[in-house]
Structures are given as structure tokens and as C-alpha cells.
């Protein structure tokens, strides 16, 4: 069955693979050690949210953090992909937010538990429209930014990633098969912080794309 054009990757129901601690200054601001190999976690495709729909603070969190990230959209499936041909598997990019229930993540870390509740809830992965590969000739040469209520919170160059996009594609594809329509979130630069109900969040890749999202609170669940 055809899933249509990969430019609507968020409708495909594929994996969202996230890389953590890929910028030294962000690892430091959360008092984490610098990784010697990529830190990976997953979000389900139900985490996707597009402009026009709100980002929801999960009912079990009081500290929802923004993390602006470059997303890489996989255009060709592969396993054990060498770094030298990794870019042939990229269809394009997207500006992504890795929304994180930081209070819940801190509890998970303290208990040695997985980050699923902190990272994988509905609306935890706001994404821009698809950006064709040609519009970003070098994924290590773009500037990411994020503003909350018009105040700049994050600004950082992808030149400061610890592990490059080709390295990440190669590394991940040795753990799990990459499929067309998968999305890789490549980690956030420094400046993460809290957002609250009614906040307006704007984020972009300088000169390429920008998105605007509003924050709402998920209704309490009583049953
Ligand atoms: O929650 C974290 O700090 C890890 C992460 O996603 C990132 O560095 O982008
Ligand atoms: Mg992140």
C-alpha cells in the first residue's frame, strides 16, 4: 500500500528516533556527562502535532520544557549504513520540538527508569512542514532558534553537534533498521526552559522555515 509522498512523513506512522545530549552546552546545563556514544530514545508517531493544533502539557506534569531540534527525514530504508553513504538515505529535514516533561524526566532519572512518560506523550513532537534536502546543503551549517512569547530562549548552530548527522544515521542503523518516513531528532542546543498554558512558541531554522504553536493543558483524567 502506498503511503503517499514522504513530504507528509508525519502521516506515515513511522518511528521517531531521538538523540539526547548531542550539544555539550545543553548536556552541561542539565548537569549531564558528555556522551561517548549517542544517547537514544523513541517517540511514537502519535506524538506528532502540526501547526494549528496545540501542544498539550500532560496532566501529570507541571514543568514542560521546549527543546528545538533539527529533524532528519529518512528517504531510503537501510541497515548498517556506512557513514560515507549515510546522506543518500536522507530525503529532507524538518524543524522539530522535543517537548519534555522535565519534572517527570528528573524522577525517571533518579529512579533509573526509562523516559517514556517524559518524552513520548501525545503532542510531544511538534514538527514543521517537510524541507527538501536541497534547501539545506549542509546539516552541520544551520542555525536553530526558539522564542517564547517573543523572547529568545534558544539559538544555536548545528555545527556544535557532538555526533554529526551521517554518524547518527550510521550508528542508529546498526541498532534498528531505518525505514522511509522515519524521523531522527538530532538533539537540542542550550537554553531549554519551561512553557506554560497560553504561551506562544515560535521556532525556526534561520532563513529556511519557522513555526508557531500555542500551549494548552491536557484535561485531567478522572477514571
Ligand atoms: O532531555 C534531554 O536533555 C536529552 C535530549 O533530548 C536532548 O539533549 O535533546
Ligand atoms: Mg531532545
TrEMBL record:
It catalyses: oxaloacetate = enol-oxaloacetate; acetylpyruvate + H2O = acetate + pyruvate + H(+); 3-fumarylpyruvate + H2O = fumarate + pyruvate + H(+); a 3-acylpyruvate + H2O = a carboxylate + pyruvate + H(+). GO terms for cellular component: mitochondrion. InterPro entries: Fumarylacetoacetase-like_C, Fumarylacetoacetase_C_sf. The keyword Nucleotide-binding does not apply. SUPFAM superfamilies: FAH. Pfam families: FAA_hydrolase. Its EC number is 3.7.1.5, 4.1.1.112, 5.3.2.2. Residues 15-215 form the Fumarylacetoacetase-like C-terminal domain. One of its GO terms (molecular function) is acylpyruvate hydrolase activity. GO terms for biological process: carboxylic acid metabolic process. Keywords: Metal-binding. Belongs to the FAH family. This is Oxaloacetate tautomerase FAHD1, mitochondrial.
Amino acid at each position: 500500500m502506498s503511503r503517499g509522498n514522504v513530504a507528509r512523513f508525519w502521516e506515515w506512522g513511522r518511528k521517531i528516533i531521538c538523540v539526547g545530549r548531542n550539544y555539550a552546552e545543553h548536556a552541561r546545563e542539565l548537569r549531564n556527562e558528555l556522551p561517548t556514544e549517542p544517547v537514544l530514545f523513541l517517540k511514537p508517531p502519535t506524538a506528532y502535532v502540526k501547526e494549528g493544533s496545540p501542544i498539550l502539557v500532560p496532566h501529570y506534569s507541571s514543568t514542560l520544557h521546549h527543546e528545538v531540534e533539527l529533524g532528519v527525514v529518512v528517504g531510503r530504508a537501510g541497515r548498517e549504513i556506512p557513514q560515507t553513504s549515510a546522506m543518500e538515505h536522507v530525503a529532507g529535514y524538518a524543524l522539530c520540538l522535543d517537548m519534555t516533561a522535565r519534572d517527570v524526566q528528573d524522577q525517571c532519572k533518579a529512579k533509573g527508569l526509562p523516559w517514556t512518560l517524559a518524552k513520548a506523550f501525545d503532542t510531544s513532537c511538534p514538527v514543521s512542514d517537510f524541507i527538501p534536502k536541497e534547501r539545506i546543503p549542509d546539516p552541520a551549517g544551520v542555525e536553530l532558534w526558539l522564542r517564547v512569547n517573543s523572547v529568545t530562549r534558544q539559538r544555536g548552530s548545528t555545527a556544535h553537534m557532538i555526533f554529526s548527522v551521517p554518524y547518527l544515521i550510521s550508528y542508529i542503523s546498526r541498532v534498528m533498521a531505518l525505514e522511509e518516513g522515519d524521523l531522527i531528532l538530532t538533539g537540542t542546543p542550550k537554553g531549554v526552559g519551561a512553557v506554560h498554558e497560553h504561551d506562544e512558541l515560535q521556532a525556526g531554522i534561520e532563513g529556511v522555515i519557522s513555526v508557531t504553536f500555542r500551549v494548552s493543558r491536557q484535561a485531567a483524567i478522572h477514571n
